[in-house]
Amino acid sequence: MLEKIQGGIIGVAVGDALGVPVEFKSREYLKANPIRDLIGYGSWNQPPGTWSDDTSLTLCLLEGLIEDFDIENIGSLFVKWYKEGYWGAHNKVFDIGGSTRYALDRIFKGESAKFSGSLFEEENGNGSLMRTLPLIYFLKDIKEINELYKVIKDVSSITHAHFRSCFSCFVYCVLGIRMLQGDSKNVAYKNMQSDVERLVASNSFNAKELKLFDRILRNNIWEYKEEEIQSSGYVLDALEASLWCLYTSNSYEEAVLKAVNLGRDTDTTGAITGGLAGLYYGFESIPEVWKFRIARYDDIESLILKFKIKLEKNENNNSI
């Protein structure tokens, strides 16, 4: 299990760090100047190996899950990052999404983290999807599909409470759980579709919202052409792009480079793809010249070890 946790968490950080220097660059620019390695500076003027808010909030969530599960505590850790640079690559914040900023400001001013996230359709950025990976390990033994959805929804809703964002996180986590349980990529995908169908069958979700997920849930996302895949900061674009990159590649390295070179929201597409690719292919699949060069590598490894110990205690106590 340790190797799978390392693969996923370090996979997020590496994918993120690969994308940071070229965030906002167009696909056309990156076709002419493709990313092949960790570089520095560029869009944010940060040294090589610097990861962004994607990884910072992933690590805050990971830390929150080590303690007793508490939405308020997780929200407080997010605020600590936002206000103090806690779990920043260099102990500072250089990038934050608008919806995340507004939600964390609300928590900072005293609002409950359970009600801080935006419910507006216009605020469906990828800010909760990018950090959701730790829930895959934390929830892997939960059998009841509605219980699984509730926890994922509650964590997403700290910043992004609209159904579209919560449901995107659920799709991503369920696929990751299937991979963690040993399914091959294609079997995991089919089982994810079945799991989601079970959830939908037992709830009265908005049919128009569900239809937006047809390319993933009714079809095979890898059958679409690259020009049909968007890589913006919109949550559905990010989910589709990350799954497309994972399923049209055969290694961690190929998946994350494909993700970053799609352009636009490069760090987040890289992070979301990198999480599942690292989980699936394992820690050893991540090139050493990348993983050992990321900022605060030793700190991340220490946190991962604490998380593994927590999961083992949960298994012994049969609890989350």
Can you describe this structure?
The chain is mainly alpha-helical and 320 residues long. It has one domain: ADP-ribosylglycohydrolase fold (Orthogonal Bundle), CATH 1.10.4080. It is 58% helix and 0% strand. The chain is built from 16 helices and no strands. α12 (235-247) packs antiparallel against α13. The longest helix is centred in the last third of the chain and has 21 residues, at 297-317. The chain is globular. The model has no long low-confidence stretch (mean pLDDT 97).
- The number of helical elements comes to 16
Helical residue percent? 55-70%
Query: Stretches where pLDDT falls below 50 for ≥5 residues?
Result: none
Q: How would you characterize the largest beta sheet?
A: none
Structural class: mainly alpha
What overall form do the CA principal axes indicate?
globular
Q: What would the average pLDDT be, to the nearest integer?
A: 97
Quote the CATH topology. ADP-ribosylglycohydrolase fold
Report Rg: 18 Å
Name the quaternary structure: single chain
Question: What's the total number of strands?
Answer: 0
CATH architectural designation: Orthogonal Bundle
Count of structural domains: 1
CATH superfamily: ADP-ribosylation/Crystallin J1
State the end-to-end distance.
Answer: 17 Å
Helix/strand order: HHHHHHHHHHHHHHHH
How much β-strand is present in the residues? Answer: under 5%
Return the CATH class. Answer: Mainly Alpha
Organism: Seonamhaeicola marinus
Binding site for Mg(2+): 52-54, 265, 267-268
Protein name: ADP-ribosylglycohydrolase family protein
GO molecular function: hydrolase activity; metal ion binding
